[in-house]
Design brief:
Strand 2 and strand 3 form a beta hairpin. With 205 residues, this protein is mainly α. It contains 8 helices and 3 strands. A 3-stranded antiparallel sheet has the order 1-2-3, with helices on one face. Among the domains are: 27-92, 2-Layer Sandwich (Double Stranded RNA Binding Domain), CATH 3.30.160; 95-129. It starts with 12 loop residues before the first helix and ends with a helix. Mean pLDDT is 69; it is low at 140-170. The protein has helices at residues 13-18, 43-46, 71-91, 96-158, 163-170, 174-178, 181-187, 191-204; strands spanning 30-35, 51-56, 62-65. Belongs to the prokaryotic/mitochondrial release factor family.
Length: 205
């Protein structure tokens, strides 16, 4: 049985292609010293010479690294940091650290833009739902007003109110006049208020 394996990439392939090659560090250009570490880490850090200090003779850049207890790992990390410092000095904005920083900034801006777009879509959806709910409420209110008008007309005839009085109320606007919000609020009161309104319209006529 044959097992296929694929290499593990820890960086984006497009980003790796756009990065400049690392600056070579010949040993003849370096002064390397091993020092005792300081700070937290116990005796392995404070009483052993595991910290690495590198000095680049042509540029005078000095780097010290002591984050691990392993001298070999500290040497590798110190050389990498020194290479980045030299690239920044020689290449400026084209250095690997600057390119990575720009890519990170672009990704952060893109993520924030997507978040704002998603939030805006949710707000528009919420506003649309509230608008539909408001329209449904208006329909119900108009139906109640029409029902009140029918009740007013029926109540006026049942209690002895003549049709001529209703015609006086409807004159000049028919049912459109009854849809007036102010007039409907008056008509929505008790039947005694309805009769008083009809009498008032008779006097005005």
């Amino acid at each position: 049985m044959r097992i296929l394996t694929r290499p593990l990439h820890t960086s984006h392939p497009l980003l790796s292609k756009s990065l400049p090659p690392r600056v070579p560090l010949p040993d003849s250009d370096l002064i390397e010293n091993f020092l005792k570490g300081s700070g937290p880490g116990g005796q392995k850090i404070n009483k052993t010479s595991s910290a690495v200090q590198l000095k680049h003779i042509p540029t005078g850049i000095v780097v010290k690294y002591q984050d691990t207890r392993s001298r070999e790992i500290n040497r590798k990390m110190a050389r990498r940091i020194l290479q980045d410092r030299i690239e920044e000095l020689q290449l400026g904005e084209d250095a690997r650290t600057r390119v990575r920083a720009r890519e990170k900034s672009k990704k952060k801006a893109s993520k924030e833009k997507k978040a704002r777009r998603k939030y805006r879509a949710l707000e528009e959806k919420k506003a649309g739902a509230e608008g539909e709910k408001g329209e449904e409420g208006e329909d119900v209110e108009e139906w109640d007003i029409e029902g009140g008008e029918e009740k007013i007309e029926g109540g006026g005839l049942e209690k002895g109110g003549d049709a001529g009085a209703l015609q006086e109320v409807d004159r000049g606007g028919s049912r459109d006049r009854l849809r007036d919000p102010g007039l409907c609020r008056l008509m929505a009161k008790s039947r005694e208020d309805q009769r008083a309104l009809i009498a008032h319209n008779r006097v005005d006529a």
